[in-house]
Amino acid sequence: SDTNPPATVDADVIDTASQLIDTALNSSLGFDIVESLTTEVGPRLAGSEAEQRARDWGVKLGESLSFDRVSVEPFSMPFWDRGELQIALTSPYQQALYGTALGGSGTSDQPIDAPVVYFRSIHDIETVEAGSLKGKIAFIDGEFMVKSQTGAGYGEANHKRRVGWQHAERGGAQALVIRSVGSDSHRFPHTGMMSSKEDQWATIPVIAVSNPDADHLRRLHELGQTMSMRVHSTAGWKGSVSSGNVVFDLVGRDKPDEIVLIGGHLDSWDLGTGAVDDGAGVAITTAAAELIARLPHRPRRTIRVVLFGAEEVGLLGARAYAEQHADELDQHVLATESDFGAGTIWQLVSNVNAEANPVIDAIGRVIQPLGIARGGSDVPGGGPDIIPMAMQGVPTVRLNQNGMDYFDLHHTPDDTLDKIKPAELAQNIAAYAALVYIAAETDVEFRTKKDEPEASTADE
Amino acid sequence: SDTNPPATVDADVIDTASQLIDTALNSSLGFDIVESLTTEVGPRLAGSEAEQRARDWGVKLGESLSFDRVSVEPFSMPFWDRGELQIALTSPYQQALYGTALGGSGTSDQPIDAPVVYFRSIHDIETVEAGSLKGKIAFIDGEFMVKSQTGAGYGEANHKRRVGWQHAERGGAQALVIRSVGSDSHRFPHTGMMSSKEDQWATIPVIAVSNPDADHLRRLHELGQTMSMRVHSTAGWKGSVSSGNVVFDLVGRDKPDEIVLIGGHLDSWDLGTGAVDDGAGVAITTAAAELIARLPHRPRRTIRVVLFGAEEVGLLGARAYAEQHADELDQHVLATESDFGAGTIWQLVSNVNAEANPVIDAIGRVIQPLGIARGGSDVPGGGPDIIPMAMQGVPTVRLNQNGMDYFDLHHTPDDTLDKIKPAELAQNIAAYAALVYIAAETDVEFRTKKDEPEASTADE
Ligand SMILES: [Zn+2]
Ligand SMILES: [Zn+2]
Ligand SMILES: [Zn+2]
Ligand SMILES: [Zn+2]
After folding, report:
1. Strand ranges inside A141-271, DSSP E
2. Is residue A186, in this structure, part of any structural domain at all?
3. In which domain, by residue range, is B258 found?
4. Which partner for A343 in A172, A401, A432, B105 could form a disulfide, CB atoms 3.0-4.6 Å apart?
5. pLDDT > 70 in chain B, percent
6. A457 within a domain of the structure (yes/no)
7. Are residues B103 and B165 in the same domain?
8. Structural contact between residues B391 and B454, judged by C-beta atoms closer than 8 angstroms
9. With bands split at pLDDT 50, 70 and 90, how would you rate the model's confidence at A415?
10. Residues B331, B284: one domain?
11. Is A110 found in the same domain as A33?
12. Is the same domain home to A166 and A70?
């Protein structure tokens, strides 16, 4: 291929992409979609009846728009339910704590009243001796999460959420309470999934409390106060249920088997209405594809929008998609997901065949007026639900959003529609429409033949 | 008195006041006090065991500082308890709502499951016909509260909280739900007291839901959806209990019977830890007096700090104070309260004898470097707990704080210590210290002999 001329994008394609940007910036379609999803369906916990209603909503939406095919691709999954929680400080005095169970938390058969053992960080509990926490509730504090545009502080802060329970259980604790993984200072707990260990989940209640509550516990600890808590959680696993991915296709006019895949996830945590996580992604990608569908002709390649099910509980929809489409993944020419809120996009990164970089660069120039910089061309990871297919060699790009405030809202009751700024959402849709249109209209090969892209393991 | 020379303040008094400002700006005493109160006592509902612990804390604090007299002045009061609340949307689908009972709310004997009747504003329910809401839950929406430095949007927004229940009960509703009175867009309900009507309180549950929840209900209503809710509240009145005011005195070296009174309220709503409402006021006024107490000599007049009990439920501590001190109110030469959070002070207003205005003006010049403008000299109202004594003729001044964000946090779970900026708190203490010192060192008469000042009815 050294002899091929450099990949280019025709001027009329660039023009059409620029027109799509103008159209998107003047359209309320995206906001209408996320308003409809959050209002008409509400919270949509993976595997719940509400997630089923979200799929029904998705089918109705797809059919009301200009897609050529609308389908639901079911899969089965284990259902974890939050149940009810009581949590309060009981000594040195009675005070309600604002907490919520983490995904995968176990049940307390009866209320647990126990003294608290304070750990300054996840590292301090890592060395706890087996049995030394018998009859106690462990509390893992931690530093306030670093805020950044990229969400860089999340991984470190999230360690205690992921594996804290394994140490607490080894110590024999009756329950684990952690400082929420979030960058806000509001009285909201942040939920999120724990990691299983050799397919085992926590058997004790594992609860996140808000940052102000954790601050309060820290201050009491620093005063030398002994603390006790009451914890009672009915969270737990409730057997196997059905979930599914909703798929919208715009069938390519020329190469219908070649697929440019975009999407977001349809499930949300159940505390808020999942507006920024990930109603926004559903709206951004659906609206971008719909604006392309309203052009006089379909692009050459098929554009597929996947509204993934059950992302929050372990990318279950994404894994099901990769399995169910295993025999056509080599026809997935490019994939990307929107799952980092509704903030302004500031960077385009990619991980495609080097010879296709001029096309990505051309896309970068088209969307630059939106305030988007061209970032690295060797950055793997197209979004969490893209990981399973990226691991099978599907090339990826990503439009990085400003995540400065994302972890203020992430997985809290406060993830509601009012947090989305329509103009920022429209900027996202404009960028996606231009990107996806050009990727579907070109016939350049994005796939790297030799190097498999590394998948990122970011959880969003 | 037309022949008296204009009131002035001696240069050395001005100097000392300026030194107090410097000291206050470099002191952490105020923050230490509010940290201690919110951490060691926590929430302190009027009439509760926690409010008793707050009085004990107050006595200990006063005794640990430089005051000459520390006392508790008890009074009895009816106790309203929040109890437990369940509130959820049950149709068109199941969704938790973030709500809380309003002060004075009645109890539901059993869970209420009923259709919702939507009222766009308090004005729309004012004309409801008797009996027309039988078997229903009334929901009063309303406009988003106007944000302002002065808190000007509160009165109008608060109308539905105050009297909404009277219309709902006339209509025969089983419960009333209202949009929270607050200027934030977070998933926190704002509590606060209702108004009684001819000494009667609501017999039905009256619940405030967060602004995002109210937005959600509005959107569903506008979609033409019929809504139902489940409401179950065990809130109610629990008989007579004891409360009290905590009083700290710095006895005047020259005119010990003349009292310059400052203070805040010791009780808080029970959802947060009452940091901005009104731990801040307790800290600001106590710290200001303490810094004056550390001067080589006591000022001429007595400085009294009153930590009022049971403010939130109807100025009960303030009324008790005015009654218990009725025979010495004419010796209260000036009074003011800090009860509008911990934001920067931007204005000094007053309502004193016109011949004493030069002294207030001089105070204004001393605190001007703190960014404080001299406002009106005929502005009544020294703060809510000052109302009962102002109605008996006690002259008032007020240091107006920036309330732009006050009603974001006001009466929510989010009123916690992290919301106080130490530098802003210190600016408050500096201004109070200078004001109170000069008022106590001068012998000018602030009292207006003929005109009784009008009391404002602001609830803070
Ligand atoms: Zn997500
Ligand atoms: Zn998420
Ligand atoms: Zn107050
Ligand atoms: Zn208040």
Report:
1. 175-179, 206-209, 228-233, 236-250, 255-265
2. yes
3. 11-80+239-441
4. A401
5. 97
6. no
7. yes
8. no
9. very high
10. yes
11. no
12. no
- Does residue A175 share a domain with residue A108? yes
Q: Report B:36-75 residues touching A (Cβ under 8 A).
A: 38-43, 50, 53
Ligand 4 center to B267 CA (angstroms): 9
Give the per-residue pLDDT at B4: 65
High-pLDDT (> 90) share of chain B, %: 95
Looking at the complex, report in whole angstroms how far the Cα of residue B87 sits from the nearest Cα belonging to chain A.
Answer: 13
Tell me: do A415 and A298 sit in the same domain.
Answer: yes
Query: Shortest Cα distance from B151 to chain A (angstroms)?
Result: 22
ipTM: 0.92
* Domain at A292, CATH number: 3.40.630.10
| Residue A201 in tokens | 């989940």
List CB contacts (< 8 A) between B40 and chain A: 92, 223
Q: Are residues B292 and B387 in the same domain?
A: yes
Best of B179, B416, B421 to substitute, by most chain A Cβ atoms within 10 angstroms, is B416
A209 touching B, CB under 8 A?
A: no
Residues A193 and A214 in one domain: yes
Model confidence at A4: pLDDT above 80: no
Largest CA distance in chain B: 77
| Contact by Cβ (8 Å): B201, B164 | no
Taking only the tens place, the pLDDT of each residue in A211-235 is: 999 999 999 999 999 999 999 999 9
The predicted-structure confidence for A321-356, as pLDDT tens digits, reads as follows 999 999 999 999 999 999 999 999 999 999 999 999
Interface size A-B, in CB pairs within 8 Å, comes to 86
Q: Hey, is A290 helix, strand or coil?
A: helix
Out of A184, A203, A234, a domain closes at A234
| In the block, residue with structure tokens 């394609």 | A13
pLDDT at B1 over 70: no
* Predicted local confidence at residue B345, as pLDDT: 98
CA angle B404, A410, A419 (to 5 degrees): 45
For chain B positions 77-116, those within 8 Å of chain A (CB to CB) are 89, 92-96, 98
Q: Do A39 and B186 touch (CB under 8 A)?
A: no
- Sort residue B290 into left (φ over 0), alpha (ψ -120 to 50) or beta: alpha
Interchain proximity B223–A272, CB inside 8 Å:
no
pLDDT of residue A3: 56
Q: Residue A1 — very low, low, confident or very high, per pLDDT cuts 50/70/90?
A: very low
When divided into structural domains, chain A yields a total of: 2
Reported as a pLDDT band with limits 50, 70 and 90, residue A450 is low
- B383 Rama sector, left if φ>0, alpha if ψ -120 to 50, beta otherwise: left
Instruction: Find the residue in B nearest to A44 (Cα).
Output: B95
The enclosing domain of B118 has a CATH number of 3.50.30.30
Residue A2 has pLDDT above 90, yes or no: no
B118 to chain A, closest Cα gap in Å: 16
The angle subtended at Cα B150 by Cα B146 and Cα B151, nearest 5°, is 45
Q: Is B416 on the interface with A (CB under 8 A)?
A: yes
Chain B CB within 8 Å of residue A212 CB: yes
> Which residues of B fall within a CB distance of 8 Å from A92?
40
Read off the pLDDT of residues A109-137 as tens digits, 9 standing for 90 and up.
999 999 999 999 999 999 999 999 999 99
Is A174:A112 a contact under the CB 8 Å cutoff? Answer: yes
∠A72-A76-A78 over CA atoms, to 5°? 135
